[in-house]
Design brief:
This protein is of the alpha+beta class. It folds into 3 domains: 160 residues, 2-Layer Sandwich (Potassium Channel Kv1.1, Chain A); 104 residues, Alpha Horseshoe (Serine Threonine Protein Phosphatase 5, Tetratricopeptide repeat); 291 residues, Kelch-type beta propeller (Neuraminidase). The protein contains 17 helices and 29 strands. The strands form 8 sheets. It has a 4-stranded antiparallel beta sheet, with no helix packed on it. A 4-stranded antiparallel beta sheet has the order 9-10-11-12, with no helix packed on it. Strands 13-14-15-16 form a 4-stranded antiparallel beta sheet, with no helix packed on it. α2 crosses α5. The chain is globular.
């Protein structure tokens, strides 16, 4: 055994291997020596446990050991390592020799703290990744607070982002109540805080104060000043905020209430203030999701423009990045940080090409083309695949369907639909793809069918109430909504929903504007509609549907009309500010002669 080890050590020293391979082999061989107790030249001691080691291996592992061994000349010297548990040091030594970390849920925090103390960067990173994979509403605050003790910028930022993005899920959790007033204030002050309504923030601070009322009641004004009450309405402030026992006897809270009511009055009387103000009390939160609309047909030509709808500010933002080539009647999906644009047409050519936009780097990349040219295509995402269904190649309309795997960059054909469908619309619900309406070349379709990827089969549902081509479909709250389109005679404003349990369609309130070939997306329990063709001209009218009230209302229009555009919802990206309105660009409303840096302003 000893002779074999000597031969192996001498053989690697004489070969021209890469540095990485040399280090791995060196570590493996030295680990065999360590386990055999051979040629160890130092001992690390923790409590009463001794670990024979080779200084050269630990020296390469950390600046801590470099400093520890720097002036050591004696073989077999014992080094006492304070404040470390024997089991943790054993893992660190094994890492130094093997490059692998045996982290578990039980030891990862102690291991990371020890690695931080010993300045072993690789273990800190490995532990950070391990902990980051475990983040959930129940532990994210504890993980974030842990990074105060054990420094990891990456893990701290990841935990902070999670808290901001999942705030509503975190408020009911026990850990939420352990935040300090400074920490809670900092979180609810963030523009990026992801909440549907500001009432969620108000309820959150009441819950936090209620946990230790005698100690925390004094902080009500500080916390209330970060609630965007100017984004609520007069009824909410009068009925919910002012009567609250913590609020009504506090002079600072009274000022916040008065300023909020004044802001709401100004906003209601001036449409130009509809998008919000720079003032903290009326400053819209940065949305967690935006509607990104690309391409389309405008003024007789296909276009390259991309717009983002910032629903919190009710504003459209022109994105400097454009499609590399004009494209209309295509499909768009958001998947794994990319926006994929599938098929469509230029002025003459019908495309089978697919391009994707990296939202982080603002760059375009062409990926594998589809098997078929598909204009008026329906596109969606299910279980890690992008599906392209139906459409037209300019001569034939398709009943074919295919799906794309981003990991292999390949398209694979799936079962054909029961009917030819061009200018249809699809959506996903409960693991199945529902394809609604469309045009066969001779008639507008009233039918709908769904695809089950487990069986690779299509099945017809009951027909819609009316025929629809150029419609839009979306899934929300266990229902499928279909809106607008063309019935062969006129553009439609009607809408209906499909109940899976009863296999029936139900009429809904009609849109304010009839339209076909428009964009439709669901964002935070609302259906947003924009653009399209109204039967006489391309429109830029936009509106939103509230399923809870079955009512439509108008929203701000984009800068120009377009039909045949495609949209998708972009959510959860780190650089959302690139696709939303800068809150500092909003107007400032001077209240009671205040300066911009006082009162309820930023």
């Amino acid at each position: 055994m000893l002779a074999q080890i000597f031969l192996l050590l001498s053989s690697i020293s004489g070969k021209e291997n890469t540095n990485q391979i040399h280090i791995q082999m060196k570590g493996t061989l030295y680990n065999e020596l360590r386990l055999a107790g051979l040629f160890c030249d130092a001992i690390l001691k923790v409590e009463e446990v001794q670990f024979p080691i080779h200084r050269t291996i630990l020296y390469d592992c950390s600046p801590y050991f470099q400093a520890l061994f720097k002036h050591c000349t004696n073989t077999g010297q014992i080094f006492h390592i304070p404040l470390v548990f024997p089991d943790i040091l054993r893992i660190i030594i094994e890492f130094a020799y093997t490059g692998s970390v045996a982290s578990t849920e039980d030891n990862v925090q102690e291991l990371m703290m020890t690695a931080d103390m010993l300045n072993i960067i690789c273990i800190i990173q490995e532990c950070s990744h391990f902990i980051g994979d475990q983040i959930c509403p129940q532990n994210c605050i504890g993980i974030w607070q842990f990074t105060h003790t054990c420094h990891s910028t990456e893990l701290r930022e990841e935990a902070s982002r999670y808290i901001i993005q999942h705030f509503e899920e975190i408020v009911p959790v026990e850990e939420f109540l352990q935040l300090s007033v400074k920490e809670l204030t900092a979180f609810i002050a963030r523009d990026e805080l992801n909440v549907r309504l500001e009432s969620v923030v108000f309820d959150a601070i009441l819950r936090w104060i209620g946990h230790k009322p005698k100690e925390r009641e004094q902080h009500i004004a500080v916390l209330l000043s970060q609630v965007r009450l100017g984004l609520t309405n007069r009824e909410y402030i009068v009925n919910k905020v002012i009567p609250n026992v913590l609020v009504k006897n506090n002079p600072e809270c009274k000022k916040i209430e008065d300023n909020s009511l004044q802001i709401i009055l100004h906003k209601n009387s001036s449409r130009s203030l509809r998008s919000g103000l720079r003032n903290t009390l009326a400053r819209p939160r940065v949305p967690h999701s935006v509607m990104l609309s690309s391409g389309g047909w405008s003024e007789g030509n296909p276009i390259c423009d991309i717009e983002a709808y910032d629903f919190s500010a009710d504003l459209w933002i022109n994105i400097p990045d454009k499609l590399e080539h004009p494209r209309a009647y295509h499909g768009t999906v958001f998947f794994n940080g990319y926006v994929y644009c599938v098929g469509g047409m230029g002025r003459v050519e019908y495309f089978n090409s697919v391009v994707r936009f990296n939202l982080r780097t603002h760059t375009w990349q062409e990926v594998a083309p589809m098997h078929y040219r598909r204009c008026y295509v329906s596109v969606t995402v299910l279980d890690g695949f992008i599906y392209a269904l139906g459409g037209s190649d300019g001569r034939n309309r398709h009943n074919t369907a295919e799906r794309y795997c981003p990991e292999t960059n390949q398209w694979t054909q799936i079962a054909t639909m029961d009917l030819v469908r061009s200018d249809a619309s699809c959506t996903v619900l409960h693991g199945k793809i529902y394809m609604c309406g469309g045009f066969t070349g001779t008639e507008c379709l009233q039918t709908a069918e769904f695809y089950d990827p487990e069986t690779n089969q299509w099945t017809m549902t009951s027909p819609m109430r009316i025929s629809r081509s150029g419609l839009s479909a979306a899934a929300y709250n266990n229902k499928i909504y279909v809106v607008g389109g063309y019935d062969g005679h006129t553009r439609l404003s009607s809408a209906e929903s499909y109940n899976l349990q009863t296999n029936t369609w139900h009429q809904l309130s009609p849109m304010l504007t009839c339209r076909s070939n428009f964009c439709l997306d669901v964002i935070q329990e609302r259906l947003y509609v924009v653009g399209g063709y109204n039967g006489a001209s391309v429109t830029q009218m936009a509106e939103v549907y509230n399923p809870h009230t079955n009512a439509w209302s108008d929203i701000t229009m984009p800068d120009f009309p377009r039909s045949g555009a495609s949209s998708c919802v972009v959510t959860g990206i780190f650089n959302m500010a690139d696709y939303t309105l800068s809150r500092d660009s909003l107007p400032y409303l001077n209240l009671h002669g205040e300066t911009e840096n006082s009162g309820d302003s930023e």
